[in-house]
Amino acid sequence: MTSPPTARSLRTTPEGLRWEPSDRWVRGRRGDVPVVDSRHPVLVWEPGVPVPLYAFPREEVRSGMLRPARNPRTGGHTGSRLFYDLVVDGEVLENAAWTFPAAELAGYVAFEWFERTGRGLDHWYEEEEEIFVHPRDPYKRVDALLSSRHVRVGIDGTVVADTRRPVLVFETGLPTRFYLPREDVRLDLLAATGHTSACPYKGTAAEYWSWRGEADVPPNLAWSYPDPHPSVAAIRGRVAFYNEVVDITVDGDLLDRPATVFTPVLGQVRGKRPSR
């Protein structure tokens, strides 16, 4: 069996990977089929990727489910050259797993997460709690704080929300998000969509809205968590907007439009909003 490292501390490989052992019991499934059952996972951060992933000792991956990839990927995953196809009940998932070239991680296998890449394992658990999209980063913090700040949200000159009862969400690496009471949001100016998304820290955003008007803004610019993770229970049912695409004024100050990991998807250009 691979000898798992025990002391928690970040290590860096010559390839630029950062990694550390985790004490969490982690399991991964494809549908109802168990694939990974690990008490010795390691967290791995790839260069230029803001979120971590897990890698597992090969012996903690269910035997006989991996075979060398028939059409191995080229590039990606920090120089990895050894990819595996995952075979589950006759279904072949190409390049669903791989090994890293780092000597320190020899004997460890990583997997794609379906909610993040559209392929790979689609159910993950830490202890008895299901987790989504990617592992939670132990160096990232998310705080949801009740506030009395005066927050206004505008789209193309129209005020769509005005409140003095926001919940501010401070999440490492992202701009402050403002979660507003529904009764302080002009939902009549927005159209509900069927879009959903998942967050490993907040839960499932099961409600999204688009702007009904003709302003040049992307769809699904507002969202809500009906049943958030208990650690951010204060945002339950509240509505938030992408700072990247709407005008947010806090205590009379118009905020700059931030550039974030969501900016390319939202089609916005880095820079400040025009003065109004």
Describe the structure.
The protein is mainly β and 276 residues long. It has two domains: 11-131, Metal Binding Protein, Guanine Nucleotide Exchange Factor, Chain A, CATH 2.170.150.40; 142-266, Domain of unknown function (DUF427) (Metal Binding Protein, Guanine Nucleotide Exchange Factor, Chain A). 3% of the residues lie in helices and 38% in strands. The strands form six sheets. An eight-stranded antiparallel β-sheet has the order 1-2-5-6-10-9-8-7, with no helix packed on it. The protein has a four-stranded antiparallel β-sheet with strand order 4-3-11-12, with no helix packed on it. The protein starts with 10 loop residues before the first strand and ends in a 10-residue tail after the last helix.
Number of domains: 2
Query: What is the CATH topology descriptor of the largest domain?
Result: Metal Binding Protein, Guanine Nucleotide Exchange Factor, Chain A
Structural class: mainly beta
Radius of gyration (Å): 21 Å
The CA-CA distance between the termini, in Å, is 64 Å
Which bin fits the share of residues in helices?
under 10%
Given as residue ranges, the uncertain stretches (5+ residues, pLDDT < 50) are 268-276
Overall mean pLDDT stands at: 91
Number of helices: 2
* Percentage of residues in DSSP E strands: 35-45%
Give the total of beta strands.
Answer: 25
